[in-house]
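Progress report, Aim 2. The chain analyzed during this reporting quarter is listed below.
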Amino acid sequence: MKKVVYDIRRGLSEPTFFISIGVTFLIMIISAIYYFQTEELFLSDDLFKTIQSLILPFIAPLIVCLPYSTISMLEKDSGYKKLILNRINKFEYIIIRFISVAIVGGLTLVIPLIILMVSCFFISPYENLESILGVILLDFGFGASYAIFGYGLTFVNDKRYIPIIAPQVGYLLLTYALPYLDLTQYYPPLAYSPWLLSSYADLNAILTQFIILIMLGAVFIVYDLIKETISI
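Predicted structure tokens for the chain:
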């Protein structure tokens, strides 16, 4: 447990984590300016929804994959991974990193949203705070699942940018393709912001997306371990 906590703390101290947080806040500020310029009556629920759903849903995978998903590749390139594996076995190393990548990915989205939720409270009392909290919890799952998917990609390619860019590219392709295939309930941005198309938002469809992403990440890891075992 201590090793997991240490690795999470390390992930939360990475420069890439602060870059992601900074980009998120910048986008929030732009969205807030849009809200205050287009609305006459300011309500905390509407402000939160606008800031959370105007731009962020369309770049969220990039934001969560940037902080910690590729750290194992950096450790390998620097030789630091060998030092770690002298202290713990590879399986334990992968499990610890799997958990910490998920938590760091989730917190990358949740921390700014909690700050946003508290800030919006000064505008007016919330009418539906439960819905806001539910979406924040959902976004933790979004961040965790996409970060795990990105982490899995580090096991099947040697390019450091692939685990950061590929989830975002696939996300955008599905965003444009699924509505044309009459699969709007699986519209990827709904997994981040269900009120984008509330009539199509379905919790089971959202959770299915999270499970598929986590399973894909796990499959990539297992594939690499099997290939390494066979080569030995």
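The first helix runs from residue 2 to 11. The radius of gyration is 19 Å. These observations will guide the mutagenesis work planned for the next reporting period.
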